[in-house]
Design goal:
Layout (H helix, E strand, L loop, with lengths): L4 E6 L7 H13 L4 E4 L18 H12 L2 E5 L9 H11 L13 E7 L7 H13 L3 E2 L5 E3 L18 H19 L1
């Protein structure tokens, strides 16, 4: 079988965000079993119907990356018991039909992980995200989902994520997501 292409989407624009670092740790957990790319979408503007057609070049670029991916893995922070506004904005752009594509997200195998500084991890944000992406007909792997509370306790003094306690759970999720993708692509 050809290696599946996983597109990772971290819902934080901060350069060294914990969720971007978690995505890179997931890339290591996946290893050579799949192609794994982290989407850079910092240049995607706020969704606005006035600029929807033709779509900005940054939007066209991310749509092409999503279209080329076999699966999507979201890494979401939790802001005020919700996923981030930048992630919602990206999904809004991706959910719109274009002349070239419709239902870009429909049927894509999807996993969700997240890390936050708070005690609740990203459980509530993930539940909200599942509601949205289920509406968009993404194929969500609901178990296992990884949520890392108090993530700073698994980082060094410079904010570098070490995943001291969560590494086995991330590995389990990576293994199960690869199996989930394989079943869906048959």
């Amino acid at each position: 079988m050809v290696k599946p292409k996983i597109l990772a989407i971290a819902g934080s624009l901060r350069k060294d965000s914990y969720n971007k670092q978690l995505a890179l740790a997931a890339k290591e957990a996946v290893g050579v079993r799949a192609e794994f790319e982290l989407l850079d979408f910092a240049d995607v503007p706020l969704f606005n119907e006035d600029i929807e057609f033709p779509a900005p070049l940054s939007v066209k670029r991310v749509r092409e990356q999503v279209k080329a991916a076999d699966a999507i893995w979201f890494f979401s922070p939790e802001y005020n018991h919700f996923f981030s506004g930048v992630l919602k904005n990206l999904i809004d752009w991706l959910s719109r039909d274009t002349e070239e594509d419709s239902d870009l997200l429909s049927g894509k195998p999807t996993a969700i992980s997240g890390a936050s500084l708070g005690m609740g991890g990203t459980v509530t944000a993930q539940d909200h995200l599942v509601t949205l992406i289920s509406f968009l007909d993404m194929d969500v792997m609901n178990y296992p989902r990884l949520t890392i509370p108090r993530v700073s306790k698994q980082a060094d003094g410079n904010g570098i994520l070490k995943l001291t306690d969560s590494a086995p759970f991330l590995q389990e999720q990576a293994d199960m997501f690869l199996a989930f993708i394989e079943r869906r692509l048959k």
